[in-house]
Amino acid sequence: MSNNERTFIAVKPDGVQRGLIPEILTRFQNKGYKLVGIKLTLANETLLKQHYADLTSKPFFPKLLSYMMSGPILATVWEGKDAVKQGRVLLGATNPNASAPGTIRGDYAVEVGRNIVHGSDSVENAEKEIALWFKKEELVDYKPTMYGWIYE
User: Fold this and answer.
1) Using an 8 Å Cβ cutoff, are 150 and 28 in contact?
2) Beta-carbon contacts of residue 28 (< 8 Å; ≥ 6 apart)
3) Which of 20, 48, 77, 141 is the most buried (most CB within 10 A)?
């Protein structure tokens, strides 16, 4: 797997309101991932319907939409080896009660409807989500000096 795989990670409104941004960013940085895009934003209905296109027919979708539009979202893009898969490991299971201690959801969330973060579930979806939330020029390409201490 290439060291430049990218994933989209969003701190949802509950995570932002609870002041968990620094903790979540720190976990990804401490793991060795490179932050290549970051912005605090308010998501509109059009963006969220595109982002959650596979869920629009679900009975819980209106509640999800309302929740995601209830406050600011920190949208981030992280890069590194197996970033999508490992990002999901750092987040924990979608249902916080099934998340292991030490994961973001396992440590900070109780209910599925307030599970703090979103993470891409595949490389293909990561590419789609990144393109939805970020313009190409908003992503920064650089080589961190720490890479030699992370990758062989």
Assistant:
1) no
2) 9, 35, 76, 78, 87, 90
3) 77
Whether residue 118 lies in the annotated active site: yes
How far is Cα 7 from Cα 140, in angstroms, rounded to an integer?
Answer: 14
Q: Do the beta carbons of residue 129 and residue 77 sit within 8 Å?
A: no
Q: 3-state DSSP call for residue 126?
A: helix
Record the pTM.
0.94
Percent of the chain residues topping a pLDDT of 90: 91
Q: Is the dihedral of CA 1, 50, 59, 66 positive or negative?
A: positive
Contacts 24+ apart (CB under 8 A), 63-72: 63/113, 64/113, 67/12, 67/13, 67/14, 67/113, 67/114, 68/12, 68/13, 68/43, 69/42, 69/43, 69/44, 69/45, 70/13, 71/13, 71/16, 71/17, 71/42, 72/13, 72/16, 72/40, 72/41, 72/42
Confidence class for position 1, pLDDT limits 50, 70, 90 = very low
User: Which position among 90, 103, 118, 133 bears the catalytic label?
Assistant: 118
